[in-house]
UniProtKB/TrEMBL annotation:
<feature type="modified residue" description="N6-(pyridoxal phosphate)lysine">
    <location>
        <position position="228"/>
    </location>
</feature>
<dbReference type="Pfam" id="PF00155">
    <property type="entry name" value="Aminotran_1_2"/>
</dbReference>
<feature type="domain" description="Aminotransferase class I/classII large">
    <location>
        <begin position="31"/>
        <end position="357"/>
    </location>
</feature>
<keyword id="KW-0032">Aminotransferase</keyword>
<dbReference type="InterPro" id="IPR015421">
    <property type="entry name" value="PyrdxlP-dep_Trfase_major"/>
</dbReference>
<protein>
    <recommendedName>
        <fullName>Histidinol-phosphate aminotransferase</fullName>
        <ecNumber>2.6.1.9</ecNumber>
    </recommendedName>
</protein>
<comment type="similarity">
    <text>Belongs to the class-II pyridoxal-phosphate-dependent aminotransferase family. Histidinol-phosphate aminotransferase subfamily.</text>
</comment>
<dbReference type="InterPro" id="IPR050106">
    <property type="entry name" value="HistidinolP_aminotransfase"/>
</dbReference>
<dbReference type="InterPro" id="IPR015422">
    <property type="entry name" value="PyrdxlP-dep_Trfase_small"/>
</dbReference>
<dbReference type="GO" id="GO:0000105">
    <property type="term" value="P:L-histidine biosynthetic process"/>
</dbReference>
<dbReference type="GO" id="GO:0030170">
    <property type="term" value="F:pyridoxal phosphate binding"/>
</dbReference>
<dbReference type="GO" id="GO:0004400">
    <property type="term" value="F:histidinol-phosphate transaminase activity"/>
</dbReference>
<keyword id="KW-0368">Histidine biosynthesis</keyword>
<keyword id="KW-0028">Amino-acid biosynthesis</keyword>
<dbReference type="InterPro" id="IPR004839">
    <property type="entry name" value="Aminotransferase_I/II_large"/>
</dbReference>
<dbReference type="InterPro" id="IPR001917">
    <property type="entry name" value="Aminotrans_II_pyridoxalP_BS"/>
</dbReference>
<comment type="pathway">
    <text>Amino-acid biosynthesis; L-histidine biosynthesis; L-histidine from 5-phospho-alpha-D-ribose 1-diphosphate: step 7/9.</text>
</comment>
Length: 377
């Protein structure tokens, strides 16, 4: 017996970890810094870490009360109803829930390219088709309603990533609303705001709040996560904020107790830890400014906790950086074989990344010049 035909499916390639790279190179893990997965350089929210320890003894029970408490706290934070919050096992789980609730076999989703591979992966898991709209490098990956609508052809879900991964660009709420207005009534516009805390930008959740009116839109949903600004990537906790009319669907599409007891308790504590989030955002903004100012290559402006760098050939540069103890993301898997994505780290990590990258780039320039020298005759 074999699984169903998965030949059209692609495997998700995560950023490489320190232990993995250290084993491969036969080196001590302490020699490396990892700036490949957009993780929080300050670690988890301290309040969340305390909550995990305090509630460890309650993991023999299902997280019914913890789930309800966290849902209520998130709903209060965003001024929406409890029923509009769909907790999930990371943002990926929320993507799956929205596809379960929306896609019939043969329906299609519209996703950005380059972009997060899991949008398309999840659609295919649910027997949906995948179509793409391009974010053009020649336009600095600018995100506009026109860019989406030019490719739109009645898809059931339109995915918008703001801030976008891996480029760091954003789309304004006005432009997002225009996409919702100009697409079909049965099209859901989903805005993935996994990096929203790092952006100087209003959240698309305002569209669900009615933007000052009594009625929010019924064709927009927003994704958020605790992985980035809150530092809880290992806990796997995310959520969708959906239209009020969608509230009842959650019980029919989610897995039983989609978020664990410890995840819920950690999330509830982290949600109140404004100091940790503010410190994290401040670090990211300082780091991305330093990276843009000091790297000897083109670096695109970013509203995320990372920057995209044009290095010409990503794979050999990423490997050379790895040899120097700095792990970054080769963006070839995003369809950008000339680019690296560098996560914003601490001050020391950021300075080390810049020093190492500039040294690698300088060495490649010297090699190129030597190779092109005309010998004396």
């Amino acid at each position: 017996m074999q699984p169903r035909d998965l030949s059209d499916h692609v495997a998700y390639k995560a950023g490489r970890g320190i232990e993995e790279v250290a084993r491969e190179l036969g080196r001590d893990p302490s020699e490396f810094v990892k700036l490949a997965s957009n993780e929080n350089p300050h670690g988890p929210s301290p309040a969340a870490a305390v909550a995990i320890r305090e509630h460890a003894s309650s993991t023999s029970s299902y997280p019914k009360a913890a789930h309800a408490d966290l849902v209520a706290a998130i709903a209060d934070r965003w001024a929406v109803e409890d029923e509009q919050i769909w907790l999930a096992n990371g943002g990926d789980g929320a993507i799956d829930y929205l596809h379960r609730a929306t896609i019939e076999p043969g329906d299609a989703v519209l996703v950005p390219t380059p972009g997060f591979a899991y949008y398309g992966m999840s659609s295919r898991f649910h027997h949906g088709e995948v179509r793409e709209y391009p974010l053009e490098r020649t336009n600095d990956f600018e995100q506009t309603a026109d860019r989406v609508l030019d490719s739109y052809d009645g898809e059931r879900i339109v995915w918008i990533t703001s801030p976008h991964n891996p480029t760091g660009t954003t789309m304004s709420v006005d432009e997002i609303e225009r996409v919702a207005v100009e697409t079909d009534d049965e099209t859901l516009v989903v805005v993935d705001e996994a990096y929203g805390e790092f952006a100087d930008l209003d959240s698309a959740v305002s569209l669900l709040q009615g933007r000052g009116t009594d009625d929010g839109r019924d064709d927009v949903a927003v994704l958020r996560t605790f992985s980035k600004a809150y530092g809880l990537a290992g806990i796997r906790l995310g959520y969708a904020i959906v239209p009020e009319e969608w509230g009842d669907a959650y019980a029919r599409v989610n897995t039983p107790f989609a978020a664990s007891e410890l995840a819920c308790r950690a999330g509830l504590a982290a949600l109140q830890d404004d100091e940790h989030v503010e410190r994290t955002v401040r670090t990211a903004r300082n780091s991305r400014e330093y990276l843009r100012d000091r790297i000897d290559a083109d670096v695109w402006p970013s509203e995320g906790n990372f920057v995209l760098v044009d290095v010409g050939e990503a794979t050999p540069v990423a490997e050379a950086l790895q040899d120097r103890g700095v792990i970054v993301r080769d963006c070839s898997s995003f369809g950008l074989p000339g680019c690296l994505r560098i996560t914003c780290g601490t001050e020391a990590e950021t300075e080390r990344a810049v020093e190492a990258l500039n040294a690698v780039l300088a060495g490649r320039d010297e090699e190129s010049e030597t190779a092109t020298e005309v010998p004396d005759t």
